[in-house]
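Exercise 7 asks you to align residues with tokens for two separate proteins.
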Amino acid sequence: MKKLMMASALALCLGVNAFAEDDGYGNDIPAARQEGTVDDGYGNKLPEYGQSTTEYKSFEEARASSGNSYSAAPIRFGGHFAVGLGSYWDYPEDYLGDNKWLGVTFDIGGVLNYRVNSLLSVVPELNFGFNYTAREVARGSSWYYRNYKVNETRTLFNINIPLTLRLTPMPNLYVEAGGRVSFNLGTSHTWNYYDENGESIPDSEIELEEWKVNTFVPSVIAGVGGSLGQFDFGARLILDLGGIEKEDKLAAYDDKGNFVTDKNNTKNWTVQFLINYYIN
């Protein structure tokens, strides 16, 4: 009988221990809950028994309160400014010589950021654009000017409408891709002579035959950037898919003296650095 009683007491002790809560650090959870010292493994203290857990935030609320580019406002409006370098690609060097064109581009306008969800936004823009490119086409001497060089310049004004899809995979960082349509409004085309010191020779600028470009030119866009408060900062590559030259026929004599024709598929490329400022 005595042995039976001892076995029952031992079993009771083991049963109590079997159902005791332990936090993995040797602390009894019920007591630790009472003291507010139980950790969920992520630095958060578990609530006491009976305490409400409504203070925990949803994923979207946590992103919105973390100060990243995810905004509580589904639509944001702002201003857009971009500056960059550009030149041509798919240039017919066999006919026109080496592609030594290089220039600057500016875009200024407005931006709209429509948030589809916490990761995806649709971002259209409406901009006024300015492209200026130049190349050195000749060097030489004359009886009046000593050594001189000649620069050819091209200027293009347009209205462009980019539309990108923007992904925000982590706080304050985004990647974007999309397309752009440009409506070219006007151009200028000049030659300018410079002396050996690089100074423009007075009255040497010559307005050349009009540079005729296609009115409608499509492009693709890819870029990365980040957001800080009301600002976006980013960089993007813009590649034209359509040729810029309206008069795209080329003709020349080849090495054998044969007269050959070809098509001028010259297209623009631009690397831009941008700033967006949102007013809401």
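Second protein for Exercise 7:
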Amino acid sequence: MARMHAGLLFALLEAALVTVAPGPADNCPSSAQVTAALESHAPRLLTTRPGEDPALHVTLVISAPLATGELGIYLLDKGGLVKLYRTLPAAVRHPARDCPALADTVAFIVDRYFEEIGLPPLPQKRSSAPPPPAPPPPATIAPAPESQGEPPRFALSLSFARRIPGATEDMAGNELKSAAAARLGRARRHGDGLWGELAAGIAGPANKSWQHGQASGNATLVRSSAELSIFWFWAVGRSRVYAGPSCTLDLLWFDATSSGRAQRETRMALAAGLRTGYQHSWANRFMVRADVSGNLAVRRWEALAESPPTTVIFAYPKRFLTLALGVGFLF
């Protein structure tokens, strides 16, 4: 079929060195765009001159996207034999800009083919207007790298945290936190911008026993917390550094037995501070991070034993640091 198609085209237009085979109107690039590119960048290939060697005449065929996602470029001679075959990336994000650029690239390939076979000089096709400026190099039409894709808008993560001071009496210790984050505004660059994060975790139980003369007792405290953070990201290569304010709300469940008397309380404590950290991501999907936050107590609480003498069992710290290591993914 290729031989018959090429023969028919040469019968219709044999005087031109290159004949662009017709194709679908929605092809990218279309036959009309390729013809216009040849007229702009290689007019000598479309110049008609009687007596030219018929063996030099070729048909230019642009295939539909192949299974590999590429376009096939074929130059067929009068007998339908393939004189040149090349492939180009077919994926485009902006057809109005990239399809003409692909057509220019095809024109450069065909012109280079005739330069290599030593085509005698031909008169340039005259034009009333000067040719347009040369297009950007073909490399600019390659698919955009992954780092220039759509920035992530959400994140989910799981982290292990440690509060300092870490004494039982200070209601500190280790905790496991899960978090969900969202970008609050338009990113200036990939992944940059203002983000908000809500995290929740649990630490405990913390146990303590005491003995004062004839008075004794034991107590258990379980602490769970919720943390709201707003921070700004800055790009450092593929990594990010971030900083911003945070607010922590702690719920405290206290259960004690003191000299045979049961004591149960549920309290809240509140702290505010600043949080900063470092985050590294792979493939714009997976990330690891480490951060630290410094906090000052806004609302404190102390658990006191009811048996005399009065004993402070647990006390919410006036200030503390939280160190955290986490993993998660972006989408």
